[in-house]
Specification:
Beta-Lactamase, 4-stranded antiparallel sheet, 46% helix, globular, disordered N terminus
Length: 158
């Protein structure tokens, strides 16, 4: 490290700043397992969509799109980000947004990154929120069933 700093100083360049620690989130291995489980549940029900797993700040860890998914995976990361941001499932957020004007305003202010439709769940580990997962591009009731089944079968921490 010292040699690298000296070398960069000799080149007239400052050493790069240290990288910030990543936000708490699920591991890549856990994210892939959970995402694949969600796609498998949906496929078994006759639906092919997309799924995203995000960290506690809403940054995408993994997005998978089934081979026969009807469209690009746009809604899944937004639904997962909302679940992580508000620590609520989409099946709770959507009706809440119809009766809680302050909550609806929060969603509307970030409609470019949040989607409150059913099919998303927050992810916890050791009692702490660490991310969210969402299924999209299938009917909302199916998305909700798929994400709940995947969390129940493949997320041992909630």
């Amino acid at each position: 490290m010292i040699a690298a700093v000296i070398f960069l100083a000799l080149l007239g360049q400052a050493a790069p700043p240290p990288q910030p620690a990543p936000a708490p989130g699920p591991s890549l291995q856990d994210s892939l397992k959970l995402a694949q489980a969600a796609l498998d549940v949906c496929h078994a029900k006759g639906f092919d969509g997309s799924v995203s797993v995000v960290d506690s700040t809403g940054l995408v860890k993994v997005t998978l799109r089934a081979d026969a998914a009807p469209k690009p995976p746009v809604a899944a990361p937004m639904k997962a980000a909302a679940a992580a941001a508000f620590d609520q499932a989409g099946s709770v957020m959507e009706p809440r947004s119809k009766t809680d004007t302050a909550f609806a305003a929060q969603l509307a202010a970030r409609k470019d990154i949040y989607n409150d439709h059913p099919g998303s769940m927050p992810l916890h580990k050791d009692g702490k929120l660490i991310g969210g997962v969402a299924v999209a591009d299938v009917p909302h009731d199916v998305a909700d069933t798929c994400v709940r089944a995947a969390v129940a079968s493949s997320w041992p921490y909630n």
